[in-house]
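Researcher: Going back to the complex we discussed earlier. I've cleaned up the inputs and rechecked each line, so this should be the final set. Can you rerun the prediction on the complete assembly and write out the structure?
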Amino acid sequence: MTEAFSILRAHLQELITLTDGEFEYLCSHFQPKKYKKHTIILHPGDRVHNEYFVVKGLLKTFLTDEDGKEHIWQFAMENWWVSDYQALHHQTPATFAIQCLEEVTLLQLSYSDRNKLCSEMHKFEHFSRMKVTSGFLNMQNRVMALLKNDAQSRYQQLLQQYPTLIQRVPKALIASYIGVSRETLSRLHS
Amino acid sequence: MTEAFSILRAHLQELITLTDGEFEYLCSHFQPKKYKKHTIILHPGDRVHNEYFVVKGLLKTFLTDEDGKEHIWQFAMENWWVSDYQALHHQTPATFAIQCLEEVTLLQLSYSDRNKLCSEMHKFEHFSRMKVTSGFLNMQNRVMALLKNDAQSRYQQLLQQYPTLIQRVPKALIASYIGVSRETLSRLHS
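Model: Rerun complete. Updated structure for the full complex:
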């Protein structure tokens, strides 16, 4: 698992500088996890205690509506963080499910440890603020493209955000993320 | 303007505890601003250097698409923060316009001062992380309601997020925020 922690260190050091001691202290709060393809690591209704840094592999966060239709909230791949953040933050039951689309290696961090580390280490609070700001700005793009009903720019954003995704998941999942039918997706893709 | 700063202090103290000295130091970075109804405080294409804490009044952040249709990204009222955050963060020209829908009192904070204060005061970085987390979670709700094409829940979210809005703005603006026609809005409202 040394490799997993090296990947985490490179990820953190994109935004902050850490001494070896600081990094080791951070690491002591992360639990390595490996899951097989298709494993559901979070079910709707579960209590959510953790978030995950994706070292390797691909996951989807989704919900299924009353008509049985699946809506994809997020894909998560290498260097992404994933959880049901609404449930994690408000300590309410999960509304999303999270499923592995490939074999995955994760580093698990509990909500209480995220907050403890933020409170103990100003640098880590800074890192966390910057990461959630990026998430907020990505969401802003997604809302505007949805409001403008502009499937083409949603498709372009997806290619930008997840460059390798198109080779890694079935077209039906891409269509569900963008919020269009598979027929519309074929037109965007061509 | 003492009242404006008291409102800011109450807002900050919902999340952090400040000594008088710390609060005075923070305040020295905020500029009070007053604008008349209809004033446009940011135009698309402008360089964005500031964000604003809303002390009193109501604003809209919006963009106009190629067909001249207005899309509302956000309303901002008392105790909200407002800017074109994409442009502010990436230091690119504004894509949004921000207009006062009422007479407003604002406290202006520059992007460089936000970052300076976050770096100098761990407490303020914590406050900022919590605020952007709330913004991210609100966006998550909005994306899911847009993807599910569920105008009724978008309307309910709007009522929850901005309880007094419905009495303060024309119906056409509400419809634009939710992304429905005025006819559809009348059905949701009834």
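Model: Worth noting: Chain B touches chain A at residues 63, 65, 71, 73, 85-86, 89-90, 118-119, 122, 125-126, 128-129, 132-133, 135-137, 139-144, 146-149, 179 (CB under 8 Å).
Researcher: Good, that matches what I expected from the previous run.
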